[in-house]
Specification:
This protein is an alpha+beta fold. The protein has two helices and twelve strands. The longest helix is centred in the first third of the chain and has 47 residues.
């Protein structure tokens, strides 16, 4: 082999090795990018599913006053945040269908329990969604040593495609329920006020709660049920694919004032 041929072999070998290094580097970069994309996608998917209905307690209420929330009445696991399971592709129903009666020829879900009354929705702890409605039951308790006043709001965190125009929110508080809906755009349209006991307080607030003189050891029970009301005039094709996220938020207003 001549000197020029030997140089060509060495140059070719260096080129091959350089190409191999470049290919390994490219493969490594692709793997890293795929990992980053998977992490971002997983995070985006979680955020999309999370927060459909959450309950939040001001951390100071827990640390300073001993107020806690729990999805079980025994408060074995007191916390400051609870989160319901997301319900994808929720279809419109009507309030009566929450009972899931077998004789309902239009709508009966064999996998879901049949309820005797709406009050049965308030008898299951924690997450108990139906096929086309969200349901969550929880407790708030004063585990501290002082009477306090607490304040809570049920808020619409976000809504797309006007989906909040047709939702109904049934809220039980210590066994008594009220159904809330958005004030209709045209109250003279038939069924504009269907299945509504009270209107939302505002565009972003469904309702609010205050408990004065909340005593040590005292508990309040809440159940929230959310569905899309099919009889609402705003339940139209335009809201299909929309999304609504709600949250219930509690904070302590201060130590209760001594009674006279």
């Amino acid at each position: 082999m001549t000197g020029s041929e030997a140089r060509e072999v060495r140059i070719t070998a260096r080129r091959v090795e350089r190409r191999r290094r470049i290919m390994r580097l490219i493969i490594l970069i692709i793997i890293i990018l795929l990992l980053l994309m998977s992490i971002v996608f997983a995070g985006a998917s979680f955020l999309n599913r999370a927060g459909r209905f959450t309950i939040n307690l001001d951390p100071e209420a827990f640390s300073k006053y001993g107020i806690a929330i729990s999805q079980t009445e025994d408060f074995e696991d007191p916390t400051i945040i609870l989160q319901g399971t997301a319900l994808e592709n929720m279809w419109n129903i009507t309030q009566e269908w929450l009972l899931n009666k077998p004789d309902n020829k239009l709508y009966y879900v064999e996998e879901d329990p049949t309820l005797e009354s709406y009050y049965d929705l308030d008898k299951v702890a924690g997450d108990h969604n139906g096929k086309d409605y969200i349901a969550y039951t929880f407790w708030i308790k004063n585990t501290g040593e002082k009477e306090i006043d607490y304040y809570g709001t049920l808020d619409i965190e976000s809504a797309t495609k006007g989906a909040d125009d047709a939702i109904r929110v049934m809220v039980f508080r210590n066994g008594v329920y009220t159904v809330y809906g958005k004030a209709p755009r045209n109250p003279d349209v038939p069924y504009a006020n269907f299945a509504i006991d009270e209107f939302f307080l505002s565009r972003d607030v469904v309702t609010d709660f205050t408990h004065k003189n909340f005593k040590p050891g005292e508990k309040d029970r809440y159940t929230v049920v959310i569905w899309i009301e099919g009889w609402d005039p705003e339940c139209v094709n335009d809201i299909m694919g929309g999304e609504v996220k709600l949250s219930m938020n509690f904070k302590v207003q201060g130590e209760a004032k001594a009674r006279d």
